[in-house]
Amino acid sequence: MSTTKTWTERKYWNEEIETMPREQLEAFQLEHLKEIVKHAYENAPYYKRTWDEAGLSPDDIQSLEDLQKFPFINKITQRETQGVGSFLGELAAVPEDDVVFISTSSGSTGVPTMSPFTKADFDAFQDTESRWFWQIGMRPNDRYVHALNFSLYVGGPDVIGAQNLGALCIWGGTLPSERLLYVLKTYQPTVIWTSPSYAWQLGEKAKKAGIDPKNDLSIRKIIVAGELGGSIPATRKAIEDLWGAELYDFYGLSDIFGACAAHCEYHDGLHIAEDHILVETVDIHTGEILPPGSVGELVYTTLQKKARPLIRFRTGDIGYIDQTPCKCGRTHGRIHINGRKDDMFIVSAVNVFPSDIEAVVHDLSGITGEYLIRIFEENYTCRYAVEVEKNADNPKSDDEVAAELSAALKARIGVKPARVKIHPDGGLNTRSEHKSKRIIDERNQEYNI
Ligand SMILES: [Zn+2]
What we know:
Helix content: 25-40%
Bound molecules: zinc ion
CATH superfamily of the largest domain: ANL, N-terminal domain
Structural class: alpha/beta
CATH topology of the largest domain: Rossmann fold
Number of domains: 2
Strand content: 15-25%
């Protein structure tokens, strides 16, 4: 007699897709790649024009490697083609009547770009989001607070993935922290999603308001995205200890959808939805293809999104993909992201990512974890300085703390900061609601990479 599990006891949201053997997954990708390239060529004026000019046609795709013949696109391509010829622009491959939703990028590095979805695109986005929520153990008996911005931001609608899974959802948005703490205290939700810096600040604010996040609240899982902190072990541990909860890093791109990749229970990289996104890794400078596992710029091709297919989109994210099997049984590769190409700076021929500096700051005891990085030039050479806050009960002198931090940065990154400035607790103005500004670039533009 076989025992039948109820649907809530199953391990995977979509077992067939999530555990597909690699060979089969690649056959699935090839089939969808052929279709999407044809769809893009026949319907998006930009692809038709540039591929014609390059002597390429959809028939040139006979294997996944054949994609390498096609040109890259990037954020600039999106900006230059949006609004050209039609409201949706030259990368769009459906008429406006088929579009039900648009999100836009934050515009933090230029003009915001718009990302359109058909009804089927939007439903696939939410189904993938349900997959990630299920993957971290969310079930219909969970109460979930979605504390992400709903205005234009592609992370806003992610809450529908939790609702479709059956969880009780509270659409928190960007509530002021006092009201959000009221929600956490009154409704006792078990899962929350916010940015890593805000998860930290909210926990600290709770303590100051006399609420112990570990014992007075019921949060057992924290999802973070939008900043790298969730994948920095020291940051993750600090937030987990503060809340008595397990932290999971999620990753989305406004250019694709808010559900690109997520941690599983092993937290060893983020499983990327390889049924929707084909990943390539290329050399940052030359664009040359690198083997899986090498660090480079991640390039994504959307395999199913009809409204605006992205073929070989250079994301500006630096990292690598690990396609070895994961202990959780899922076969989709795991991405590890070191940082944004735009945030990286070079000091004495060493690539420095702000996330490396954050990891050191969060590892060192006796400081609050708040920090500010200044990048500047001195004698035509790029240098960096770090400012931190000393805990009120730290008996060490400012000079001692500065020397400790400087040595730890040298050990981890390879180059010492030009200066370390120590502030008292609360002395840095980096605590802001939801997203913090921690990098000040004082260089002339010509020295930026
Ligand atoms: Zn896994």
